[in-house]
Amino acid sequence: MPTVQIERPRTLCPAGLYTFALAEVNTVEMDAFNPLDGKVERWVWRFVSNRINPEDGLQYEIPIFTGQAYGNPKAKLTWLLDMLLPGITKVQAANLDTDTLIGKTFDGSVKHAQSQKDPDKKIAEIQYLRPITDTSAPTAEPDPFEFDDKPDTAEDIQAAFKAAQAEIASLKAREGKHGVTA
Which of the residues 9, 38, 94, 163 has the least number of beta carbons within 10 Å of its own beta carbon? Predict the structure, then answer.
């Protein structure tokens, strides 16, 4: 026998920075933007945040509703896939299995906006998502913001400091011998 599920009221996710995981992508039938078009199928991308709602002990969730066509720069699906898979091409989008994205994590930002259906209601919207890559896995391109010579331990810092002091002393000694000043 089917069981009746009671919809829990969603608490508004506070604005701010989050880590999100894509929990699922479902197809739903919704009213079209133009009432004359009747119903259309749309995708609902359910993102779960890393923060817990203190009222119910559950993680905050934010859905993103998209169409099913990629390529138009104004399309919500294009906006979303360009963030989830930077550099995606139309060919890759056409062959994408959305299930491969389930469980992937993303840094993101949430802000509040007015609901299009009810202007008196506030909703939480994801403003951007950036994939979190596995730093232990080798990457094809080096990270331009990672410094290979960055000291990691106190000993490394002390050794780097002593080396710098020795270099300064060497420069001062040469300055004195040759009468050259910088």
Answer: 9
Angle at 83 between CA 23 and CA 133, to 5 degrees: 70
Tokens encoding 171: 């420069």
| End-to-end Cα separation, the chain, in angstroms | 88
- Backbone torsions φ then ψ of 16, nearest 5 degrees: 145, -170
**Contact criterion met (CB below 8 Å) for 104 and 84:** yes
Question: Domain span at residue 21?
Answer: 16-131
In the chain, DSSP assigns E strands to 16-31, 39-52, 59-66, 105-114, 122-131
Task: Tell me, yes or no, if the pTM score tops 0.70.
Answer: no
Q: Are residues 38 and 127 in the same domain?
A: yes
Residue 84 and residue 20 share a domain = yes
Tell me the HSE value of 7 on the side-chain side, using a 13 A CA sphere: 3
Average pLDDT over residues 128-144: 68
State the amino acid at position 21 in one-letter form. A
Same domain, 152 and 125: no
Reported as a single tens digit per residue, the pLDDT across 78-135 is 999 999 999 999 999 999 999 999 999 999 999 999 988 788 899 999 999 999 986 5
* 48 lies in the same domain as 90: yes
* Side chain identity at residue 139, one-letter code: T
